[in-house]
Amino acid sequence: MEPLRRVGDLEIEEDLEFQRAMWRVQKIGWVVIGIIVVAALLGLFGNGPLSRAVAGQAGLRFRVEYERFARYKAPMSMTIRIEPGVAQQGRVRVWVAREYLEAIAIQQIVPEPVEVLSQEDGTTYVIQVADPSKPASVTFDAQPDQFGLQTIRIQVQDGQPLRFRQLIYP
Amino acid sequence: MDAILRGAAVYIFLLLILRLGGKRSLAQITAFDFVLLLIISEATQQALLADDYSVTNGFLVIVTLVGIDIGLSIWKQRSPRTEKWIDDAPVVLIENGRLLWERMERERVDLDDILAAARELHGLERLEQIKYAVLERSGGISIVPKQ
Fold first, then answer.
1. Could you tell me where this protein is found in the cell (chain B) (predicted)?
2. Which residues of chain B does A25 touch, with a Cβ-Cβ cutoff of 8 Å?
3. CATH number of A54-169
């Protein structure tokens, strides 16, 4: 056992050297807490301007509005906006790659697909469109079941698949 | 598996954040400190148990928390340095009747807090009756009156 320190008449384990270091660490910690709060307000942890994102690609006739940052088991949504003239016979086929479907639990799809086709590498949702000469959209409401960086691949009709990424916090 | 990871993550995070808050942050000085403690525990509960309400999950989380606590206490026993970083160390605020302002400022303790402790613990009336005032690790202030 260490010999007891004395401050005046007090036998006390005071350690000013440690205390100063601790105060310094605390100050740094407060700054870090401040940064985290501001980052969270901006949406670094989901639901904010930094988190809102739109994926699209030249030559593709749709784009996807999604959350760049999502959280494990927290509700999130993704909207696929389809340009006019894409639908054929009043229907649009939206294909989502299997990896992503395994990472999330879909709560609902609006509008509800008229057909859902399971494939080896993903699932195709067939959506009925009222007027193919006007833009259409499909919204997926889901909850992530896995965390980490996810790569999402979405294809509309028979075009090129669109690839983008989403970070899911634990 | 994730029950253990969740328990460990919450333990470490809470330890870190409460240490950053300083000795006085949750010393239950005011009624609101107590309410804050309740709110924090409420927010923690979700992260600890997630949506798994099984008894097994609850047991695993408790075992993890107590296990880490035992582990840390053994480590603290062996290393006084670790003990200080985890449990903090007391700071003398009044030494032989002399006020140490810089420390009081750093620990965010003011004269009113010391006088309140003096009244509560010893029924002292004035500052000059205090010989030593120490801010303890718990966040409470202990007072040694002059004879």
1. Cell membrane
2. 20
3. 2.60.40.680
